[in-house]
Every structure is written in C-alpha cells, then in structure tokens.
Sequence to fold (423 residues):
Amino acid sequence: MAEDATQTVRRHDIDWLRVILFGLLIPFHVAIGIYWSTYGADVNPNIDEISAVDSREFAEESDDYSAESVDSTSMVLHWMHQWRLAALFMISGMGTAFAFKRRTWQIFLQERVKRLLIPMFFGAWTMGFAGTVILGGEEMTASGLTFSFLFGIVWRSLIFWVPVFGKLWALGHLWFLWNLFQYSLILTPLFHYVRKNPDGGLSRMIRSSLSMPMGIGSLVLMPLALTVTEVLFKPWFPGYIGVAYEWFWFLLFFLFGYMFITAKEEYYRFIESKRVLITALAGAWTLAFVWIRLEQHDSGIPYVDGGWLEQGVLHDWRTLLACLIHSFHAWFWCLTLFSWGAYLLNRPSGSLAYLNQAVYPFYIVHMPLTFLGLRVSSDLGIRGYPAVLLATALVVSLCWAFFEVVRRTRATSFLFGIKAQKV
Fold:
C-alpha cells in the first residue's frame, strides 16, 4: 500500500509500477527460456535452430544456449534484466516506508513473516514440486510423486538458507521473497529509529540527500554507492538470484526506495524537476551499457555479470568502468520509471486494487506454468516470437484462473500472500 505521508493520499503510481514490473516477469521468463534456453533443451522450442546457427554459443555440456548472446532480442533481455529487479526492490523499500509509518516494529515483522515467509515456503513446496514434474524430473507414479513431494518439503525447508545453491534448488524464483525478508529484518532498527525521531539527525540527512544542489545526492552519490558494492564484491562471484554482489546491490536499492518515501516532498520535487534530465541520462547510460555488454561478449570477461577473478583479473580500468556503467545504467532507468510513473500513473483506477491482489499469486505460480507454456510451444513446433506470444498468453490465462480460485477463501489467500482489500 502506498500513501502520501502528509495527505494520506494513496500513491497510485507506485502501485501501478509494482503491477507492471511484476507483470513483466512472465514474458521475460518465457523469452529467456526460448532465446537463452535457461530451463534446458527439453522445453526450448528454438533449440534446433540455436544449435545450428551458432554452435560456438551452444553449451554442449548443459544443452543451454549461452546468455552471452548479443543478437537484438538477447540485448533487449539483457537491458531489461539490469533494472527490472532493481526497481522492484526500490518499490518494496517504498512500500516498507509507507507500512512502517502506521506500525510498531513488532507488528511490522509479524506482517513480514505472513506476507513473505509463508508464501515463500508454501510456494517452494508446491510450485517447486510442480516445476520438476513438468520438466520431467519426477517418477510419474502415485508412490513416486507422493514421496518426492513430501521429501521435497523436508529438504527445501532445510537448505533454503544456504547461499547460492540452497536458494537455487530450494527456492528457485522465490528467492526474491527471502531477500526481502532479510533486508526488512536487518534494516528494522533503522526504520524504527527514523519513525521515533522524524526530526532527528538521520531523518534530516535522508531529506537533505534529495535536496542537495543540482540533485547531486540522487544523480551522483547514490549510484556511486551502488558502484562501490560492485567494485568490492563483483570480482569474486557472478551475481545470480540475489547472491554475491547482488545481495548488497539490491539491499541498497531497497534502502534508497525507503529513503525516497521517507524524504516525502523532497523526493517528489526531485523527480518532477529532473524528469527530462533523468530520461536523457538513462539513454546515455544505455549506450554505455551496450558497449560494455559487447566487450564482455568479445573478451569473455564477465564485466556485467561478475566473477572475473577466474580470468586472473581483480580489477583493471575496464572492470572498474564496467561497475560504474552497470550501476549508473540501472539507477537511471529506475529513476526514469519512477519519474514518468509519478507524472502519468498517479491516478485512481477501479481495477488497480484487484491487480495489486493478483501480484503475489501470479508471481508464485507463474514459473512452473512457464515451463508448461514452453513445452506446449515446443510440442506444437512453434518457435521464436510466436512461441513467446503463445506461451505468455497461456501462462497469463492459467495464472488468472488460479488467482480467481485462491482469492475466494481465507486460507488460500493467506498461503499465497493475498492482502485483503480495505472496504
């Protein structure tokens, strides 16, 4: 829920951006299953075409199309991937700022458990199992499926906290909820202090960061802080499902989202007055991002992804520049979304509350349905963009039907993180 701190007016733009960005999950995850073969060759409609066209980028060991591809479609996916999750973490930080104004820290953490951990565990147990069934990873007998489901509850509950592999195997796409809970827990003392001291030094510092001359706080210092996290952590391990440098990177995006809403008037004045400049800078940083992505493709050094220590490089001028480009590019696209969202989307709609309720159920169930959509497209021999359209339409339709079922009872609403609408 998003409310203006002084006028108790709901911020419809933030709600709309939350719906839109979560909505992009489905076509994005469908497309990377087709153009990068992220989920394996068995469900990739394009697999024959990919291996025939460019065997250099076809990983024989895993039957995966390399995400290093720089064809036009892959470049759009790379571009989108840099800011989409970052913006969602910022929106989550904004929502946290709104929520903490009306709650004690105890109530806040209780709600975090209900809204994040319970859907995470239940989704991992059920949707994680459904995904392995659709991908053909389970024995298709009654006894085999029953054992796998029950055993999955045990092992997923035990290893989810293990960095990288635990999150990948146990949580899959639900890692986002686990990161959000960790960030909320870690930063709760700060949230509590700011709430109890609205005119204290820390609160004044947050507000002043958005009112510095020429917007230097938001236009330079904040993305520089993001850059520092990359410089410190990116050489060691690739960022993936919110681990390695991404854990710290997304933590800062979450914190900055909180700071923006805490700053209130200063934030809205900033994005209104700097909207055109922000958009122009996002375009300029996009050109720089395309260059560094092509450098990664040509050199084989993962400037964007991280983990270049394997190539014997800790840092050189290209890795340092890559950290700067990556953070500034993501940051300015986030600011572009929020500035234009505030300008165009801060309007009420009868469908917005309904769509907001649908966000978590769609997110939780969409991944195994993505596997199903890809398998259907593959079996029908449909490839490329038609496969993306068909699979996306199928996933959206099934997610919507699922949402309509689970939202009708209190128990299923609770398990899938559906927040009751206020009358």
Remarks:
- DSSP finds 17 helices and two strands in the chain.
- Residues 1-69+348-423 form one domain.
